[in-house]
Amino acid sequence: MSSWDGFEGGMERTINRRSLGIHPEQDPYLHQPYSSHPSHALHPSAGPSATSTPTQARNAAEKRSKEYVYRFAGLGVSLASVFSEHILSHPCIVLRRQCQVHNTARWNHLTPFTLFPTIFNIQRHQSVLTLWKGIGSTLMVKGLAAASEAAIHEFTPLPKEVTRHSSLKKMAEHILLKGLGFVIITPFYAASLVETVQSEIACERPGVFDCIVEGVKRLASFTSAQPTRLLPVWKLILPTVVYGVLHYVIASLAKYQVMLTLKSERLERKGPQDGERPEGTMYELYYPELAATISGNLLADTLLFPLETVLHRLYLQGTRTIIDNTDTGLEVVPIITRYDGVVDCYLTIITEEGFAGLYKGFGALVLQYGLHMAILKLTRVVFDLLSKGSSKGRTVQFDASHAVDPRYSRENYKGHDRPGYS
Predict the structure, then answer these.
(1) By CB neighbour count within 10 A (0-12 exposed, 13-18 middle, 19+ buried), where does 131 fall?
(2) 93 near 371, Cβ under 8 Å?
(3) Does residue 310 contact residue 346 with C-beta atoms inside 8 Å?
(4) H-helix or E-strand containing 322?
(5) Which terminus of the chain is less hemmed in, N or C, by CB atoms within 10 Å?
(6) Average pLDDT in the 22-45 region?
(7) Phi/psi class of residue 48: alpha, beta or left (left: φ > 0; alpha: ψ in -120 to 50)?
(8) DSSP conformational letter for 232
(9) What are the residues whose beta carbons fall under 8 Å from the beta carbon of 308, sequence distance 6 or more?
(10) Model-level pTM?
(11) With the C-alpha atoms ordered 215, 297, 348, 109, is the resulting torsion angle positive or negative?
(12) How far, in whole angstroms, is CA 59 from its chain's centroid?
């Protein structure tokens, strides 16, 4: 603004006040700087530097609106991730575990296509929600694991979280904390497995806290011999800790690598100047983390699938559990095994069932992550739509009557044709 424009604006304000009968000495705004005058207060919360033009007010409103959209989008992504991981995929987990522990099955179900007839027969002869059995105990064990890690972190110097900048010592301590958490939940995880694989036709529906009660019973018989082939807890702790720690490490490393790859692709696609900007679309903010998490879990579950099969058979041995027949889905079969430990179980499976016996139910895992990929694809479409909508921006109409004091407007000045002020 030139000096003449400022002088002309100041004269106009003085004339408007005089035409309205306001004495210069009684006007509190007369001696204030030009930028702090009420006629330039485009937004009540904005300071003098941000209230000079309607465009800046519109940009501020659009920025606040985008922040609200991003917050709700982040909440929606979190809820969708929890729903797909713990609720939607639970039937696939039930089928996978039933196939893993069915040692006399004729079908290995290495692809999801052979599972469809079994799923149909189970749903037709039992309830619709039969494949969601044991979901309460599964969530309870996950909550117990989180509480155990929090308690260990409170009473020990072991860190609960680490970053890529943490030292090797701190990372080792963090892995130790994870291992101690798996030690605590081992008997409860074994009890939860029974609830997820047992048939609802031949077994009573478990209570809400039966998982905790059965876990305490197995923990009480830590080293004592059992009248059945039930293995003592001390034989299950070491393989459980190894499996849990390996799964966590593999999933974390894979997630970190996928995040780096997606970030580098974004920088190459946008260029260095655009890539340095902290803001991005909702797709760029949330989608890479979702894709990295799913990829990491998929890699860990695939690599450790044989060890998981061995563990589940050891957990179930001696519990006298009856499961649905995974070959047909029309009848039930008892689980009777006589394994002495991890090595004996592994060698017995290889000898009696072949190497494919270690991957029984792998088709259920493929089906589970197929659903995850479909949800991920749907999430990407939603992010693209929301990002396009936010890029267009919400047009904020600027109403001058709300920003300019009507006493000092040009229209009021023109309406007062008093002598001496023309």
Answers:
(1) buried
(2) no
(3) yes
(4) strand 322-324
(5) C
(6) 46
(7) alpha
(8) P
(9) 100, 243, 301
(10) 0.74
(11) positive
(12) 31
